[in-house]
């Protein structure tokens, strides 16, 4: 993959320097978008992105590509709304086809309690300019005729909330789009470069140590998602983050049958159809902690059983592939963005199961924060200090299955 990209001049090979204005650890969507916005909006071009593997090797190349803004709190809705807005024109901005496809999302409701929760979400969304509305079962079938309203005879559908702006964006295209646009602006992207230490002197971050030598830096950003605790520990920091695996699977490609995302929060499952025609199913993070990306048969058996309750035709397609990525989960299911207790050491962490959709707004906000010291309004609720002052932003809707 790396060779192909370099062959097409997306990522020119650059000599690694001993000094950069900004060093970004992690070549996923968060690190690469921050690099791009630092260069494009703030004229800082002496930047290195250090990736221990290939760009997109982490969760950015493994997610299920959902971008949406139907969140549950006055703090989270503007953040995700802005990001979705930015995604709409990102192909043009980066001059890279991100295969943005607007298809909508149906969140199935099975109980009176869930109806109340979803209805409250709709009202708050509408108040904040986000299009989310309740549907009757008949209207659910108008949007997606393949849903079994009996829930496989186990979990009948009594309605749904519907979020028409929900979209899909090709995940690796977003990685390559940000990387190539940043590289055109002079950003150095060094793959196969692992950070092994953070240099801290008198409470101030001065640079990093890598397996290719030390690099001095005016600012260092950790954007390593599932490995956030590990990298923060190199700077002597303890984060309120635990890493959990998240799996998904796809079937062989079939003709177009599902448009959009179909979720059941009660059954903890979501189903969509990829642009290649594969039927895709995913669930919640697994309940244990690990850095292993090994997939399991248990997951397929459980997730397929839940998905079949609502989309029975899934049973006609053969399973083709499953995979696993790591999610850095925070206690409030919201990201951690901002300068840490170590001066000039910044965190783009706690991206959990929601960090693909936040990449444009989080990258742009983080770039402004690093370049100017300002904290953009949309980013303020997510500063690292919120845990010390007990001002968390709980929004379990960050995960598509809650
Ligand atoms: C199965 C699955 C489905 C998901 N679906 C969605 C979805 O539909 N929508 C959504 O918004 N989010 C989704 N997510 C979450 C989303 O993918 C992540 O939150 C997001 O990609 C995190 O991006 P990142 O750039 O922070 O981290 P990553 O993409 O994980 O990148 C971190 C990078 O850091 C590198 N790294 C780690 N340690 C070091 C080191 N010491 N030195 C150098 N490099 C290092 C890693 O190799 C990695 O490439 C999903 C995740 C998974 C696993």
Report what the structure shows.
It contains 10 helices and 19 strands. It is α+β, with helices and mostly antiparallel strands and 402 residues long. α2 (29-42) runs parallel beside α7 (171-184), α2 crosses α10 (359-372) and α3 (76-88) crosses α10 (359-372). 51% of the residues are buried. The longest helix has 16 residues, at 112-127. It has 2 domains: 16-63 and 171-241 and 331-398, FAD/NAD(P)-binding domain (3-Layer(bba) Sandwich); 105-164 and 242-329, D-Amino Acid Oxidase, Chain A, domain 2. The strands form 3 sheets. Strands 1, 2, 9, 10, 11, 12, 18 and 19 form an 8-stranded mixed sheet that branches. Strands 6-7-5-14-15-16-13-17 form an 8-stranded mixed sheet, sandwiched between helices. Strands 3-8-4 form a 3-stranded antiparallel sheet. Bound molecules: flavin-adenine dinucleotide (FAD). Residues 25-31, 50-53, 57-60, 62-66, 194-195, 223-227, 231, 246, 248, 282, 325, 327, 351-357 line the site of flavin-adenine dinucleotide (FAD).
